TrEMBL record:
<dbReference type="Pfam" id="PF04379">
    <property type="entry name" value="DUF525"/>
</dbReference>
<dbReference type="InterPro" id="IPR036767">
    <property type="entry name" value="ApaG_sf"/>
</dbReference>
<feature type="domain" description="ApaG">
    <location>
        <begin position="3"/>
        <end position="128"/>
    </location>
</feature>
<dbReference type="InterPro" id="IPR007474">
    <property type="entry name" value="ApaG_domain"/>
</dbReference>
<dbReference type="InterPro" id="IPR050718">
    <property type="entry name" value="ApaG-like"/>
</dbReference>
<protein>
    <submittedName>
        <fullName>Co2+/Mg2+ efflux protein ApaG</fullName>
    </submittedName>
</protein>
Length: 128
């Protein structure tokens, strides 16, 4: 698990490998990740959008931007946390992801960016 705190918001990530399968005559590697967002600040905040950079070992990079996370824009009061799971497909058994959340502080009404630390995606059978 990797973790990072930005402006009192802690992001923790754990990953898993789900398996391989063929889609459109091409082998894919399926990964899951679980993210916990914890509010260690003194203000209530809301996650509004996300930005992901998804890398695989074949040098392919995919950038994904969108609103909220899995259809939600969670509000976190001080001391609260929100956990969600999602996944991605790679064309190789190794990769990584990193990104950030755009959030708003309800006390100051200012938006700010919370870093999602880089984390690795690797199929266990491919490790040496």
């Amino acid at each position: 698990m990797v973790s990072q705190i930005t402006r009192g918001i802690k992001i923790s990530v754990s990953t898993g490998f789900e398996g391989t399968y063929f889609k459109n005559y091409k082998l894919h590697f399926a990964f899951t990740y679980e993210i916990t967002i914890e509010n260690h600040s003194k203000d209530s905040v809301q996650l509004n959008s996300r930005h992901w950079e998804i890398y695989d070992s074949l040098n392919n990079t995919e950038v994904v931007d969108g609103e909220g996370v899995i259809g939600k824009k969670p509000v976190l009061k001080p001391g609260e946390k929100h956990t969600y799971s999602s996944g991605c497909l790679l064309s190789s058994p190794f990769g990584a992801m990193r990104g950030y959340y755009n959030m708003i502080n309800f006390t100051t009404t200012k938006t700010f960016r919370v870093i999602i630390p880089a984390f690795r995606l690797s199929a266990p059978f491919a490790l040496n």
